[in-house]
Amino acid sequence: MKFGIIVFPGANCDRDVAYVTRDILGQPTRMVWHEDSDISDLDLVVVPGGFSYGDYLRCGAIARFSPAMQATVEHANQGKPVLGICNGFQILTEVGLLPGALMRNRDMRFICDRVPLKVERTSLLWTANYSQGQIITLPIAHGEGCYYADEATLAELEANNQVVFRYCGPDGAVDARHNLNGSLGNIAGICNRQGNVLGLMPHPERAADAVLGGVDGLPLFESLVQALVAA
């Protein structure tokens, strides 16, 4: 399978993702410049973290108009996988591939930490290598990671089992104490109805090599490769 990673001015996590897909998993990987609109050779598109276009106006508000993102929307609408990490998650909400929005953190401060997450759904190509309810630890690094949606949208996400990851305590408790950014429903990551688009604020690519202190993010990428190779 072939990965494509979009490169925006201001992105700073694109090479981190490429290290996982290309060097750890040995998969063909293409860096896609934001002005490139031809992604027909790709099986999966990753919208990485960083500060696309300097986060001017609003996180992801400018990136959504790039030719590469317009092509990514078409890619997703064909049922092909799209992964948005941190700023990539913000961009996916801006472009309409995922519902809701990412707002300023509750305490109005940038947060850089490692946090426990509960895996809420394992019936997806992204999470098949996790177990239901598993507690994993991933890094976070964001100033606008507070997930917000209106009550109707939140109810729909819950009813359709679209919440994939939640912030929790080490013991799996889902409560305000372990919700550092104030996200509604302790939501850390969601998918679309079809399950082919996933967005999450934590960074699985920063927890995919033991030298970095943990590998809890690696099963996400491994699950994806196994699912697409078997398809």
Write a brief structural summary.
The chain is 23% helix and 24% strand. The protein is α/β, with parallel strands linked by helices and 231 residues long. The model has no long low-confidence stretch (mean pLDDT 95).
Based on DSSP secondary structure assignment, what is the total number of beta strands?
Answer: 11
The DSSP helix count reads 5
Overall spatial form: globular
Euclidean distance between termini CA atoms: 10 Å
Roughly what is the average pLDDT, rounded to an integer?
A: 95
Instruction: Give helix and strand order, one letter per element, not per position.
Output: EHEEHEHEEEEHEEEH
Question: Features of this protein?
Answer:
24% strand, single chain, alpha/beta, nine-stranded mixed beta sheet, 231 residues, 11 strands, 5 helices, two-stranded antiparallel sheet, globular
Could you walk me through the main structural features you see in this protein, from its secondary elements to its overall organization?
With 231 residues, the chain is an alpha/beta fold. It has helices at 14-24, 67-77, 87-94, 151-159, 218-230, and strands at residues 3-7, 29-33, 44-47, 82-85, 101-103, 111-119, 135-142, 146-148, 163-167, 187-191, 197-200. The strands form two sheets. It has a nine-stranded mixed beta sheet, with helices on both faces. It has a two-stranded antiparallel ribbon with strand order 5-8. Helix 2 (67-77) links the parallel strand 3 (44-47) and strand 4 (82-85). It is globular, with a radius of gyration of 16 Å.
